[in-house]
Amino acid sequence: MTVVIVLLALLGSAWLLAVIEGWITTGRLSPAAPLYSGLAHLGRESIVPRSPDRVFFEAAPVLLLVVAVLGMAVLPLAPDLVIADLGTGGLFINAALAYVLVAVIMAGWGPDGAYAMIGGWRFLGQLIAYSMLIVMPITAVAMRAESLVNTAIVSSQESLWNIVYQPLGFVLFFIAAMALAFRAPFDLPTAEGELGGGVDAEYTGVRLAVLRLARLTLVVTLASATTVFYLGGWYGPLLPPWAWSLIKTLAVAVSMLLAGRYLPRIREADLMRWCWVLGIPLALVNIIIVGLLILVVP
Question: Which spans are transmembrane here (predicted)?
Answer without folding.
Answer: 55-78, 90-111, 123-143, 163-182, 216-236, 242-263, 275-297
